[in-house]
Amino acid sequence: GEVLKNLNKFYKRKEIQRLGAENGLDARLFHQAFISFRKYIMESSSVSADLHIILNDICCGFVLVGHVDDLFPFFLRHAKQIFPMLDCMDDLRKISDLRLPPNWYPDARAIQRKIIFHAGPTNSGKTYHAIQRFLSAKSGIYCGPLKLLAHEIFQKSNDANVPCDLVTGEERVFANEDSRQAPHVACTIEMCSTNTPYEVAVIDEIQMIRDPARGWAWTRALLGLCAEEIHVCGEPAAIDLVTELMYTTGEEVEVRNYKRLTPLTVLDYALESLDNLRPGDCIVCFSKNDIYSVSRQIEARGLECAVIYGSLPPGTKLEQAKKFNDPDDPCKILVATDAIGMGLNLCIRRIIFNSIVKPTVNEKGEKEIDSITTSQALQIAGRAGRFGSSFKQGEVTAMHREDLLQLKEILSEAVPPVKAAGLHPTPEQIEMFAYHLPDATLSNLIDIFVSLSQVDGMYFVCNIDDFKFLADMIQHIPLNLRSRYVFCTAPLNRKEPFVCTTLLKFARQFSRNEPLTFDWLCRHTKWPLAAPKNIKELVHLEAVHDVFDLYLWLSYRFMDMFPDAVLVRDIQKKLDDIIQIGVCNITKLIRASQSAAAPGTAEVVSEDSPLSRTQKDARVVSDRHSAASTEPLSIAVEAAELRRAKNLRPSRLGSRQEDLKSYGRGSLANRLLREGLLTQEMLRQLESEWQDQHRNGRYGFGSKRDDQHSSKETRKKRK
Q1: 404 and 432 housed in the same domain
Q2: Phi-psi region for residue 515, left (φ > 0), alpha (ψ -120 to 50) or beta?
Q3: Where a domain ends, among 257, 287, 312?
Q4: Which stretches does the entry tag as region Disordered (predicted)?
Q5: pLDDT value at residue 392
Q6: Residue 396 lies in a domain
């Protein structure tokens, strides 16, 4: 007891905490080191003799001999055993010092660049003017956020007789038949070269410099491109940050402001019913489940609709856009996610927000449901009434009347200024860390790097959760550090198990020095594949398309080990056609999925949004109504999640009185647990609260008190 008391006294001493900080132990590391040190002393049977004597002196109260501060050398020795980096902290701090990113690009600093910022909303012509300068230059590079955008500029440039190459993570297309490099190139922003000199560079969607995951690529392009003129295009909210960043490089920014070319009107009435749809309408949903539900309801009314969402291959998206845009095609309605916000030219008369909440991931990596931001709303709404389309003005509204007021508020607010630019550790920096910490895993190296990194107020270190996820997944596979780093930067969705297990197999075979052949890939993916018969099969085909993308991405980094890129690209095009067939018949697939599902299941496929609002609103289609009304949900769990989602009305759920014990672990509860929105502890607490209410004679949210609480909470969230 005395030992523990004195150890805790040691831990709380400000002087000890200060000494710890001087030796590289920040508050987090100090705490972890102390927990380990305490455990070592309390549980170890072989404490060193000198430490044993010190502890004995302290506990026996020999004031002149022993004091808790005397434990510090032993504590520090123990800390260095569990945190080896403490011995080389100065070197590690220098390596992870990210305070002067402009100095990383000496070629760009060697020339005086002219920066022109084309600022304006969607459909203002800002990118058009930048591209005109790109086309008129002797040489140029276009950097965009999407493959579709890079492909569009590649096409446009070559159509204008300006030879232009295409470079994306998965593809290289040369304008010249002999594969000579053309003077112009269109690329996805991560692929831009900071060593090649150009006359003109265009950086599109510059506001994405604040993106928690990809912002580093815009920072790298802005600071590092070796071009005489840099044309940046994007929201006015990024002007101040770009100006500040360029001040540190000694480069001035010329701002050219643009206004929207066609009027955009926010309507005073909501759609309220799909019976009120008109040709040229686009319904925007924020989950695949809502896409499936809305498209089925539309076709139940005898109307054709095109479907676009993020995980569709680029070719399928373009085909669906072409079908919707074609005046001779009977398809006049589009159902899409916010994937239409950029990269596709669409003839939309009216944007209808099916919901104004979407799942997001916060800075801690936790999933939340929140209202869309002003920036997101403007980007999507701006797709209506595009200049040069058949609709000379755009309209925007909401599906539900109670959403419209908040949508108007969101659209009328100013977009908050972009405050900081993203950074990401380079392979060279991680290699230097590994030299000092040879026994650390790549995931630990990244953690240590981020914890030690120093950035000034204009920058932040991007979220590296995906990188760490892959690093942990392939940690047991013997790879050299550079190869391991490349595998961990592979662009894949970690929610797709098939794609993740494929990366694991790729890495394992790569480590054995066995080439990943076309035949091996066909066996693994069971190619050739048939057209999908239900939604589950369609989702799997999308995952296989992502696997082919992954192979092609790796083939440009390890050509000898992934030798069959040409053959894989051929079957990927065939797979794109198969997926297109599935999307064109999507309502048949939904019907097949629902008829095959267990009775009472409203869900087609578990997707992004834990709550599909449309499923609850789809009373007009009888089979959807019957499915929704018998959906085995816990009313208490549903209420808890709905109250987190702004503007989802409790009254819509009715007053079902299912027992939480019976249904609390049903489809929604399990899904919320999987999504990380609900923990087992929260579930137990909800069960307990529901049972208390049940004993007190209160059910669901039928009571006046609950309604008052809900309305107060809604008002509080809106303030």
Answers
A1: no
A2: beta
A3: 257
A4: 601-627, 689-719
A5: 86
A6: yes
Among the candidates 354, 387, 412, a domain finishes at 412
- What's the pLDDT at 121? 93
Cβ 381 vs Cβ 420: under 8 Å: no
Instruction: State residue 671's pLDDT score.
Output: 55
Can you give the three-state secondary structure of 22-52, one letter per residue?
A: HCCCCHHHHHHHHHHHHHHHHHCCCCCHHHH
Strands 253-257 vs 140-144: parallel, antiparallel or unpaired: unpaired
Task: Give the ranges where 99-172 is alpha helix by DSSP (H).
Answer: 106-109, 126-136, 147-159
346 and 322 share one domain: yes
Among residues 468, 424, 482, 492, the alpha carbon closest in space to that of 221 is found at: 424
Residue 718 lies in a domain: no
Tell me whether residue 351 is in a domain: yes
Q: Under 8 Å CB-to-CB from 561, ≥6 apart: which residues?
A: 510, 513, 515, 516, 554
Same domain, 76 and 105: no
Please give the span between the terminal C-alpha atoms of the chain, in angstroms, as a whole number.
52
Same domain, 251 and 268: no
Structure tokens at 245: 């960043």
Alpha carbon distances (Å) from 658 to 192, 409, 583, 598, 666: 57, 37, 37, 19, 11
CATH number at residue 23: 1.10.1740.140
Task: List the structure tokens of 567.
Answer: 């053959």
Among 624, 635, 712, smallest CA distance to 669 is for: 635
523 vs 361, 517, 519, 571, 576, CA distance in Å?
A: 36, 10, 6, 13, 19
Please work out, in degrees rounded to the nearest 5, the angle formed at the alpha carbon of residue 293 by the alpha carbons of 288 and 299.
125
- What 3-state DSSP class applies to 360? strand
Token pair in block for residue 28? 């987090």
Query: Any idea what the CATH number is for the domain that residue 393 is in?
Result: 3.40.50.300
CB atoms within 10 A of CB 89: 16
Q: How many structural domains is the chain composed of?
A: 4
Whether residues 444 and 501 share a domain: the answer is yes
Which residues are paired to 144 by β-bridges? Answer: 188
The answer to whether position 483 is within a domain reads yes
- Predicted local confidence at residue 532, as pLDDT: 95
Q: Residues 584, 440: one domain? A: yes
Same structural domain, 483 and 390: no
Enclosing domain of residue 181: 101-257
In angstroms, the CA 664 to CA 684 distance is 9
Identify the H or E element spanning 710. Answer: helix 704-718
Give me the CATH number covering residue 505: 1.20.58.1080
**Per-run averaged pLDDT (10 residues), the chain, 719 residues:** 83 89 84 88 78 77 65 88 80 89 95 97 94 98 95 96 96 91 97 96 97 96 98 97 97 97 95 96 93 93 93 92 94 94 90 90 66 94 88 94 95 96 92 88 89 90 93 95 95 93 97 97 97 94 97 97 97 96 89 66 40 35 32 32 38 32 45 56 66 52 39 42
Cα–Cα distance for residue pair 658/594, rounded to 1 Å = 23
At residue 508, the pLDDT reads: 97
Whether 429 and 405 share a structural domain: no
Q: What size, in residues, is the chain? A: 719
